[in-house]
Design a protein that fits this description.
Layout: H1 2-30, E1 34-39, H2 83-90, E2 98-99, E3 113-115, H3 137-155, H4 157-167, E4 168-173, H5 176-183, H6 190-195, H7 198-218, E5 223-227, H8 236-241, H9 251-274, E6 279-283, H10 285-294, E7 309-310, E8 326-327, H11 344-356, E9 362-363, H12 367-372
Parallel strand pairs: 1-3, 1-4, 2-3, 4-5, 5-6
Antiparallel strand pairs: 6-9, 7-8
Helix pairs in contact: 2-11, 3-4, 3-7, 7-9
């Protein structure tokens, strides 16, 4: 009988030790922090898979180079990892941020980061309505509000607040669709352009974004990276539909992006002063991508105009990437994967600059410095 009792005691001690070790391992993992990602198709990791929408990337050959899925499509709008994926790896985070709408985005998974981004989404709720369904920035922040309450339940209020304020980075990549699939959209946006000048539209965008960032701050976000709008006039889609030459870009689209970008930078400077304890890092995506487009050969690319995967026109820029698309064999030699989105090879260069790069691309600090703040 004594031996049996001893045996039970040993087993109990083993179980308790294993539970303690498991909890330590989980807490060790949390030491690397989390990424909470908001935005559009540049960083969507699969949310649109769960929506009835015309904007989807869960079809081959999207994801053909995404090792984590064995080359199967996941809903990422590129051939491999997004900028958000690569940045998370570079910050030492052990897991990719899980799409909010995915069934496995529950329990402790949310402590490793959540991705709320949605293809077609914008700052304005009306942006992307051409796709039927998408998550606007307002809805993405609403969803984070739900996550925020779950984090309280998992960690307790005090630890949750510390984790979000000190260990979590809030990444916002949004705004392109507000121009491409709202203000500049042929036919559908004519009314808006008659009733609202570019200045007034940009005013509107920035006041909405300011409110969204302030909501996140009130939910304990403190470390932000906000990307500006890239050179949307130079993407294969715009070059193709406007029948431009290889070295030309659509002037109006780029002019609007630059106008918005200058004012976004000023707004982030203001928020750094106004919101106590917050750090807003500005990512100059426009200049970063323009550098790749202008000097593509310097980075080992063979083209910065033609989509690797797509159809239509001289830059394969009209029909999105899908099973019937033509696809290049040298995917890492193309700046653009499809008519709209960079390839993984381009994303790697962009992410490296964000992680440890030049102040002209990322300021007032890079992402590794923001993590260690």
């Amino acid at each position: 009988m004594a031996m049996t009792n001893n045996y039970v005691l040993v087993v109990l001690l083993l179980v308790i030790n294993l539970m303690v070790l498991a909890n330590c391992a989980i807490d060790d993992d949390l030491g690397f922090g989390a990424s909470y990602i908001f935005g559009d198709s540049l960083v969507d990791a699969g949310n649109n898979n769960y929506l009835q929408t015309l904007s989807k990337a869960n079809i081959a050959p999207n994801g053909i180079d995404f090792k984590a899925s064995g080359g199967n499509p996941t809903g990422r709008y590129t051939n491999g990892r997004t900028i958000g994926d690569i940045v998370g790896e570079g910050l030492g985070q052990p897991h990719y941020a899980t799409p909010y709408l995915a069934p496995n985005c529950t329990g402790r998974t949310i402590l490793y980061g959540v991705n709320y981004a949605s293809g077609g989404g914008g700052i304005m709720n009306g942006t992307g309505r051409v796709f039927v369904n998408r998550l606007s920035m307002d809805i993405q922040v609403d969803y984070f509000n739900i996550t925020r309450k779950e984090i309280d339940k998992l960690l307790g209020q005090s630890k949750a607040r510390d984790y979000l304020r000190n260990k979590s980075i809030f990444s916002i990549t949004i705004g392109s669709n507000d121009f491409l699939n709202n203000y500049l959209l042929p036919v559908l946006s004519i009314g808006t352009r008659i009733s609202e000048s570019p200045d007034a539209f940009i005013d509107d965008l920035l006041s909405h974004l300011r409110a969204q960032l302030t909501r996140l701050y009130k939910l304990d976000a403190r470390k932000f990276i906000v990307g500006n709008v890239g050179p949307i006039g130079c993407i294969p889609y715009q070059k193709t539909i406007n029948q431009l030459k290889e070295n030309e870009c659509v002037e109006l689209a780029n002019k609007l992006a630059l106008q918005y970008n200058a004012r976004l930078k000023d707004m982030l400077t203001q928020l750094n002063k106004e919101l106590d304890g917050a750090t807003f890092v500005h990512a100059n995506v426009f200049d970063l991508v323009m550098e790749l487009i202008t000097n593509y050969d310097k980075y080992g690319f063979v083209t910065a105009t033609k989509a690797c995967c797509g159809n239509g026109g001289q830059f394969a820029g009209i029909i999105p990437c899908g099973p019937t698309s033509s696809m290049c064999s040298d995917r890492d030699k193309h700046v653009f994967w499809d008519p709209y989105h960079p390839s993984e090879a381009a994303n790697l260069i962009i992410a490296k600059q964000l992680l440890e790069g030049d102040p002209k691309y990322i300021s007032p600090m890079n992402l590794k410095q923001l993590r260690d703040l």
